[in-house]
Amino acid sequence: MLVRHLASVVVLLMAGAVCAPTAQADPIVEHVNLGDSFSAGSGVLPLAAGAPLGCLRSERNFARIVADERGYQLEDVSCGGASTEDFYSRQHPDTPPQFDALSDSTDLVTLMIGGNDSDVFAGAISSCVSAALRSPGADSPCADEYGTRFEDTITSRTYPAIRQALGDIERRAPRARVVVVGYQWLLPPTIGCAPQMPVAPGDVPYLRSLQRTLNTSIASAAAETDTTFVDMSVVSEGHDGCQAVGTRWAEPLVFSDQFVPLHPNAAGEAAMAAEVENALAS
What we know:
By secondary structure, the protein is of the alpha/beta class.
């Protein structure tokens, strides 16, 4: 009797298992990462397999960390040296326009962009280093020579280019959430660290102000296009390239621990990933 009863129970359980609805698999989230060397993680090893060598795209950039942790399907087309122009045209012979990766099925777009537009931010750093070398002992030779030229370029050219690009992302990927990340601090607020960051003392706050203007422009463009802006300025304070190894999130120009200086290191990319995840959760 007991065996017969147990057999009946087993049959009923098996029938229930057969009739029970099958669990639905989680929908695939299509994630596209765009942008420049900060977005690509240029300098952070290992390099991503199969990526164009000229892009110096890292396997551990912030977008890849986010996609790995969340199980997203990532198409990463970020590329070192990219400007907003490279969203629309080839940056290298083997790199299609970055916007080619966008489609109606894209669910999430992450990006960092603007630092290379008009060569203004990278150009300002180079100009300030050169000014310090030309005028040893001068307090602010770069600010004295260039004044508001760099900030004016960001306001008049970089900001509208970023705003246009964010609007075009919305049109090309209409269902996607778009997250643009601001640039983390490369220099401390006032006191520099020559020779690691070889700029004159008075040009340290000058370059900080320029970076603040760039981030403000990105934030404004995001606000006008319903784009989520991830502000790295607060969390990256005290983690600039003048700090000690293990504390800094960006590498200095001289004595860098990675082959691309003045860029986020692995800790910096991980910090950006954490802030992006916080934004996605809100």
